[in-house]
Specification:
The structure is a single chain. The protein is mainly alpha-helical and about 550 residues long. The chain folds into 2 domains: about 45-110, Roll (Nuclear Transport Factor 2, Chain: A), CATH 3.10.450; about 125-525, no CATH class. The chain is built from 24 helices and 4 strands. Strand 2 and strand 3 (about 85-95) form a beta hairpin. The radius of gyration is 26 Å and the shape is globular. The model is unreliable at about 5-25 and about 530-550 (pLDDT under 50).
Length: about 550
C-alpha cells in the first residue's frame, strides 16, 4: 500500500509539473514433418520446399550452410526459418492453401518486423498521399512570401518536410535507402540551429505575410479537430503506447513495473518511470482489459501530450512578444505544429514522443523560473531519457545574467522530480535492475535503423560524433554568454539533433523531440510587425544637430 500511495503521489507531482524459433509468440511446431496437420493441406517438408524457391534463400545458401525449420503461424499459414549457426537469416511465410510464398525476408528484416514496410503498421492512413501531401502544403502555405521567394525560411520548412523522402523508402521496406537519406536532413538542421543559436540574424520579411489572424485561428481549430478525429477513427497503438498502458495498470495494482512485462511487449519497460505514471490518469478512466484490444488510454494520452504542446507553443509565442504580435507568433507556432506531418504521425502511432516535445516546450516557457523549468524538463528526462541532454543548457537558462543560484534552483527541482517519480517504482533488483532495463538496454541493442548499425566499419566515426554531441551539450552551458529565448530554443534543438545523429537507433517519431524548438528558433527570428508601415518623413534638424552629424 505504501508503494501504491507513493506512486499515486508521484503521478500527481508530474501532472502539476506539466501544468507548469519455436519459442516465438504465435508459432507452433507441427506434430509431424511429413503429414499435414489437421486443417492444413501441405506438410512441413512441403512448406520448406516452397520456401527454398525464394531469392532470399538462394542468396544466403550461396554464402552459408543453412538448416531449416517449419512452424504453424496461425490458420492456413506456415513460417519457414533458415538458420546459420543458430541465427535466423531467412524467414519465409507460406500460404497453405495456395502453396505459395506470401513473404520472404533476409538480413535485418528477419529480426525487425518494423523494417518490413507493412502497410499501416505506423500511423495507418496518415501515410496516405491524400493526407500527407495536403498537410505538407498546409505546413508551408502561410509562411510563403511571394515577394521574397528565396528567403531562408522557405528552405528551412522544406528541409523539415524532406524527412518524407527517407520515409517513402521506409514504407517500402527499403531501409538501405531510407536510413542514409535521413542523415543529410539532420545534418542541415544541426548546422542551421547552431547558426541560429550562436549568430542569430533577423529574418527577411514578416513571418506570415498574407494570411490574416482570423484565418490562422480557424486553421488551428480545423486541423486540430481533424487530427483528434483521425486518432479516434483510424490510428493504431504501437508498442510504445502499449507499454505505457501496461505500466500504468501495474502501478494501479501495486505490482512492479520493471522486469515484469509480458511476451507480447517484452521490452516495454525500457522507458523512465515518469512515462508509466503519466499514463495512470488515462488508464484509470479507460481501464486496460489485457492485450492489444483495449488501449483507449493510449489514444487519450497521445492526444493529451499533443494538446499540451500546442497550448505551450501558443503561450510561448505570447511570452516572447507583447500584444497582438505575441498572439500572432503563438498562433503561427501552434499552427505549424498541427500542420507538420510528423507530429500527426507520432499522434497516429499513439506513442509517447510528443511527451518529450511538451516537456521541452514547457521548460522553455518557464525560462525565467528555474524551479518550474527544472521540474518540466525532469518530467521528459524521467520518461524518455533524451531530454536529460538539455540539462546543462536549461540549468543556466537565458538572458544576460545567469548565476549559480539559478542553476542550483534548477538542479534541485530537476533532482526532486526525478527522485519523486523514480523511488516508488524502483524494482526489487534495485537501481541496477532499473538501469539494465532502461538505459542499459537502450545502449546495448543493435539496430538497422542508423548508419552505425548498418555499417560496423563506421563505429569509430560514431564514437567521434558521440564525443562531439557531449561536447556540444556541455558547451552551450557557457556560450554564447548573451542569449534570448529563441537562441536557447535553437541551441536546445541542436543538442537533441546531435544526440540523434550519434544514436544507434533513429526513427521518424523522434523528429517531434526537436521540432517545436526548431519552429521557435526559426519563427522568432522574423519581425514582430506583420505589416510594415511607411517610414515617417525625416524632421528638419536643428543647426547644432547638423553640425554634430557632420562631425
Amino acid at each position: 500500500m505504501a508503494r501504491r500511495a507513493l506512486a499515486a503521489a508521484a503521478a500527481i507531482a508530474i501532472a502539476l509539473a506539466l501544468a507548469a524459433p519455436a519459442h516465438a509468440a504465435g508459432l507452433v511446431a507441427p506434430g509431424s514433418q511429413t503429414i499435414p496437420p489437421p486443417g492444413y493441406r501441405i506438410s512441413a517438408v512441403h512448406a520448406i520446399q516452397v520456401a527454398k524457391s525464394t531469392d532470399q534463400y538462394r542468396r544466403e545458401r550461396a554464402k552459408h550452410r543453412l538448416t531449416s525449420a517449419a512452424y504453424l503461424n496461425g490458420p492456413g499459414r506456415w513460417q519457414v526459418s533458415f538458420f546459420h549457426d543458430r541465427r535466423e537469416v531467412v524467414q519465409v511465410q507460406v500460404d497453405d492453401r495456395l502453396q505459395a510464398v506470401v513473404e520472404a525476408w533476409s538480413g535485418p528484416q528477419v529480426a525487425w518486423k518494423m523494417a518490413r514496410g507493412y502497410k499501416g503498421a505506423f500511423g495507418r492512413s496518415v501515410n496516405s498521399p491524400f493526407i500527407w501531401i495536403p498537410l505538407c502544403a498546409l505546413f508551408v502555405a502561410p509562411f510563403v512570401d511571394p515577394r521574397r521567394p528565396f528567403r531562408l525560411l522557405h528552405l528551412d520548412l522544406l528541409v523539415l518536410l524532406a524527412f518524407g523522402v527517407s520515409h517513402f523508402f521506409f514504407n517500402r521496406a527499403q531501409i538501405s535507402a531510407s536510413v542514409p537519406l535521413a542523415y543529410p536532413v539532420l545534418a542541415y538542421l544541426l548546422v542551421r540551429m547552431l547558426v541560429a543559436g550562436f549568430r542569430p540574424r533577423p529574418g527577411r520579411g514578416p513571418l506570415v505575410p498574407l494570411a490574416p489572424t482570423w484565418l490562422l485561428v480557424a486553421a488551428v481549430l480545423l486541423i486540430g479537430g481533424f487530427r483528434i478525429g483521425l486518432n479516434v477513427v483510424d490510428s493504431n497503438v504501437i508498442d510504445v503506447g502499449y507499454a505505457g498502458v501496461i505500466g500504468a495498470d501495474r502501478i494501479e495494482h501495486g505490482r512492479d513495473v520493471y522486469g515484469t512485462f509480458g511476451r507480447d511487449n517484452e521490452h516495454g519497460d525500457t522507458y523512465g518511470p515518469a512515462n508509466y505514471l503519466l499514463y495512470v490518469p488515462f488508464e484509470e478512466i479507460w481501464p486496460w482489459r489485457g492485450g492489444w484490444g483495449s488501449l483507449d488510454a493510449a489514444h487519450a494520452a497521445a492526444v493529451a501530450f499533443d494538446l499540451v504542446t500546442v497550448v505551450g507553443l501558443f503561450l510561448l509565442g505570447m511570452r516572447m512578444r507583447a500584444g497582438p504580435a505575441g498572439r500572432r507568433l503563438g498562433l503561427a507556432l501552434a499552427y505549424a505544429w498541427l500542420a507538420f506531418p510528423y507530429t500527426l504521425f507520432a499522434m497516429s502511432c499513439n506513442s509517447n514522443d510528443s511527451l518529450v516535445a511538451a516537456s521541452v516546450v514547457l521548460a522553455l516557457l518557464a525560462l525565467g523560473r528555474p524551479l518550474s523549468r527544472g521540474a518540466a524538463l525532469a518530467v521528459g528526462a524521467a520518461a524518455k531519457l533524451a531530454p536529460a541532454a538539455l540539462f546543462p543548457l536549461m540549468a543556466v537558462g537565458g538572458g544576460a545574467r545567469r548565476g549559480r543560484r539559478q542553476a542550483l534552483l534548477f538542479a534541485l527541482a530537476f533532482a526532486a522530480v526525478v527522485a519523486a517519480v523514480t523511488v516508488p517504482l524502483v524494482p526489487d533488483g534495485g537501481l541496477r535492475e532499473l538501469y539494465d532495463r532502461t538505459l542499459g538496454y537502450q545502449a546495448a541493442r543493435m539496430t538497422p535503423f542508423s548508419i552505425w548499425g548498418e555499417h560496423d566499419s563506421l563505429r569509430w566515426l560514431q564514437m567521434a560524433v558521440r564525443i562531439a554531441a557531449i561536447g556540444l551539450a556541455l558547451g552551450v552551458a557557457v556560450a554564447p554568454r548573451r542569449r534570448d529565448g529563441a537562441q536557447v530554443a535553437a541551441l536546445g534543438a541542436a543538442v537533441l539533433i546531435a544526440l540523434q545523429l550519434a544514436a544507434g537507433y533513429w526513427f521518424y517519431l523522434y523528429i517531434v523531440w526537436f521540432a517545436p524548438l526548431v519552429l521557435v528558433a526559426l519563427f522568432a527570428a522574423h519581425p514582430g510587425r506583420e505589416r510594415r508601415e511607411p517610414a515617417p518623413a525625416p524632421a528638419a534638424a536643428e543647426p547644432g544637430m547638423r553640425r554634430a552629424a557632420v562631425a
